[in-house]
Structures are given as structure tokens and as C-alpha cells.
Amino acid sequence: MGPERHPLLDGAVVAAIEREASAHLGRAWLSLGFTDLDARASHPSGVLHGEPFSVFAKLGAGAAAREQFTAELDGLRLLSRAAGIRTPVPVADGVIGLAAGALLLFEALPERPPGARQREDWRSIGQALAALHGVRHPRFGLSGARGFFGPLPQDNRPVPANRWPDFYLERRLTPALRTAAGSGHLPADLAAGVERVAARLPGLGGPEPQPSLLHGDAQQNNFISTVAGAVAIDPAPYFGHPEIDLAQVDFFHPVPADVLAAYGEAAPLDPGFADRRELWRLPTYLAVIAVAGPSRFGRQCLTRLGDALRRYG
What we know:
Number of strands: 11
Strand content: 15-25%
Distance between the termini: 52 Å
Radius of gyration: 20 Å
Shape: globular
Low-confidence stretches: none
CATH architecture of the largest domain: Alpha-Beta Complex
């Protein structure tokens, strides 16, 4: 039995992409080849090659796929409009519905892959984050439609107190704990540990920040390195604590010191950030545990969560 065919190569899916790309171009566009990018994405993803541009496509299944991709596209528009951050160019409307899901389409970017990044590529990520965080707002959160963190809904509504510990507890940590516990993958002792840390939040979170525009899922693979600089993808934006993004950059893999060095040239880091980094990662650990608990990475996040909880007692 041969290898399973990539879902983006289904005939009906290719035809839908070709129609959108043709409308975007104003003349016929045909797919001439395919590169699988599943290893770098949480959805089936890839590049359909063509002329004069290629198309990056991401496929979502289920009733919420269109809402999720629309939120992603709206988030990219916010980053670009508010902070001048480079973002991909949508193909036609950017999001199209399918019988059982949706497609997100962008013009593919000529990139330097993560493994081949150079010093200026890493610095550009730090500079992009500093530009984002320079955009301020009077309230934590974000009005409008709900957001998504990966496949999980994210509630961005401001909280009455408008203090960072309250927003972080009510909109990030408590919902993530509830989702992870409900998945059946979170042991009771770790759940109790998260609750203990939550009770101590006001004293652990450091100085009260000004609400800053966040990427929201700023792990290093959510920036594409191009000759023109870093291009942001897959955001989950809201106004929050800048350290949230900085804690995410090296969540999956270490990054060179150039990222934070370039960031610090525009926005000096608080000396206590290193001690708070794991505190801001707790919702991400819980999200991974909820979605991928039985997997190798899910089990790693259980271990990392336990280590973080011991750090904060």
C-alpha cells in the first residue's frame, strides 16, 4: 500500500485553490507542484507551486474551521495595520469554505528555513516583537469576535478590574486549566498545583505592565524569515503583557541571544523576566496537554508543567 495522499492534493481542493488564485491574479492560475509543510504546522499545510506566484494553503476541518481562519486573517490585518508588521498577502479573500471545513490561502513567501536562519533573521524577529509591543491600548484584551490559540477558542474580552493578573487568571490560566482537566490528560496533582500558583498570581507577576499589542503565539516558527525581514504568521492577538510573547519565542526550541538583544534595543527588558518566563508559559503547557496529551510532546509538556509548578511553589 502506497503512502497516503496529502489532503491538499485532493482534486476538489486543488480545483478550489486554482479558482481562488485565478481570481486573485485576474487570469488562469494552475498548480504545477506541491511541497508538504505538515511538519511545521498544526493543520495539513503546503505550498502549491505556480506562476507568477505560489500559494501557501492550510486546510481546516470541522464547523469552526472558517471562523478560526477568519480570526487568523483578521489578526494578521491588525498586526499590519497597527504596528506595520510584515504579514503574508491573502490570495483573493484569503478564506474559502469547503463542504467539510475551510482553506486559508496566502501568496507563498520565499524564505530562509528556520534551520538556516542567520543573525539578522533572529534580530528581525526581536525587532518585530518590539514594534508590536510599542502599540498600546487602555485595556487588556481585545474587543470583537473570539480568537483562537491553535485549535482552541480564546476569550479576549476585557475584564472589569483591567489589571493584568486578573486578565491572565480569568481569560488565560483558568480556561486553559479547565480545558486540560476536561481532556482527561492532566493529572489531579498538577491541576491542584496550577490552582495554587493561580492563587498567588498577584505576587508572582511582577510590575503591572501597560497593555501592549501581542502576537499571542510568538513561537519562532510563527515568523517567516525573508530577505525583507521577519513576516508574522499564525497570530492570536490581544493587548496584554509583552513578556507573554517573549516567553513563547523559545517555547519549542532555544533561540540565539540575538532575538532578545535586538528586542531590548527598542524596549528594555525588566530584570525579573527570566524568573517569570515559566509563569507565562503555563497556559501553553495546558493547551498542548489538552490537545496532544498522549503524544510524546504532550508528555514532555506534563514534565515541563510539573517543573514550572515546583518553581513557583
